[in-house]
Amino acid sequence: MRMTRPVLTAIATATAGALLVGCGGGSGGGDGGAGADGDGGQLFVTLANHPWTNVVQDKIADFESETGIDVEVTVLGEDQLSDQYNVKLNAGATDVDVMMMRPLQEAKLFSSNGWLLPLDDLLADGGDDWNWDDFQMQTSVTTEEGVVAVPIVTEQEVLYYRTDLLDAAGLEVPGTLEELQQAAATIQQQNEGVYGFVARGQRAALVTQFSSYLYAQGGDWDDGEGTATIDTPEARAAYEYYASMLKDYGPPGVTNMSWKEASAIFQQGQAAFYTDASVFYNNMIDPEQSRIGDTFGVAQMPAGPEGSAPYSIPSWGLAVNQASQNVDNAWRFIQWVTSPEMTKEIQVEGVAGARTSVWEDPEGTSAFPEQLAEVIRTSMEDGVDHDRPVVVEVGRARDIVGGPVIAYLDGQDLDAALADAQEQYQALLDDER
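Structure for Sugar ABC transporter substrate-binding protein, as requested:
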């Protein structure tokens, strides 16, 4: 996978309800420690409400039976999960051992706060059967302190398109950004009520999806050594392209659109092209959500001057709380749930994992349409290891670097907006340094 910065600086669908699930049946003691023979004890696992979690919860009883470890699982919505971590980990809580977290959103912050246990020594003793080298996206879970998480769920940005509209226009699937622009213009002109293109337009939400356009132009958010690169010619070309696609071929009100709104427009047949995460494929084929299940396709992100450069990231990983009193049991659980066998079992349920060997196994890709599996594999090979600025204050950074798109859509001067974003983002990098 393509990396655009050194390893040391390559750092790194929820519900509102919270559910506490006690997975009993284990024979471990109640003191939270492992027995003398390495079996038994208790383990506190905190997970996000996610399809990966849904599959894993049904299998934890097997882990308890095998190890004698009593696993207590807390499942929370994404926002609640982050809130709980911020409160509990800051207080040094020990009732969180294994924690499901978002590496690119939280790893640098949590690691800099001393909340994550570096896993390098554990990885070195992981054994050939578990095989850390089999995992993709390792730099995305690495901070200055070392490897702080194991990837479990991955995603890439892809191009969704309407096959019927392309056929009617006599066009091939766009392979370059120039071809995408031309196809969007042609189809919009030929089909009243159909927009040529749709994508995220909300200031912060657009950043992750805009990133693949930025990388394809040869740009990035910064140089990995503390210098912002928002005002470079490469970045300017990407901002102008993405914003003009939204302005010229997108629906009205695009600045209020995150993935839910943009997806809905494409799923209702109102747009020819849509770029977003590979995880939304099932939404496209779900007859309860989509009218285009039989008339859409998926392709790798179109190439810019630097080729196709989609982000390819772990959207979720498993980490160990630095304050955990159950490190041995925590690591045992992580090795079990991320083993080649379990990774394949989970991926067969349609959750994209991070092991190369599973993606090379026909059984491992059996839950994915052949076209989608091939796009994911190719995107992993060509992909970039981050989809947002890799900083502690990710939210602040996203608001800054998303600004030039909004400015362009509002009719403001792009160069002035880029200069302003450059200054603000450089100040953020200086603050963190």
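The first strand starts at residue 19 and ends at 23.
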